[in-house]
Amino acid sequence: MENLLAKLLFYQPENPVSFMETELENLMKLRENSARPAPSLFTDANVTALFNKYDVNHTGVIDAKQYADAFKTLALPLHVTPEAHYTKAQFLDDVRASLNLKTCAFY
């Protein structure tokens, strides 16, 4: 419910009822077919921008502390032990996985 309200406030659709119906239908389909990605407030562009904020030297890699801080910024729990360094692709994959776990609490 919290995620639905956040999306409603974030996107501010012209027809909130229709928007909520569509989001609820997406959640129901997700429940039936777990191979589909979970609906999320964050896009890959948002997560990439966050990674770039921590990648101050533009090396394409962040260290374990930066990784943990970025997850804290997104209010996501760490589900893995941070390695010494993470690439942008690794970071995106880990954030997607954590968002799916957090968003799909009904499983």
From TrEMBL:
Domain EF-hand intervals: 42-77
Gene Ontology MF annotations: calcium ion binding
Annotated InterPro entries: EF-hand-dom_pair, EF_hand_dom, EFC10
PANTHER family: EF-HAND CALCIUM-BINDING DOMAIN-CONTAINING PROTEIN 10
Protein name: EF-hand calcium-binding domain-containing protein 10
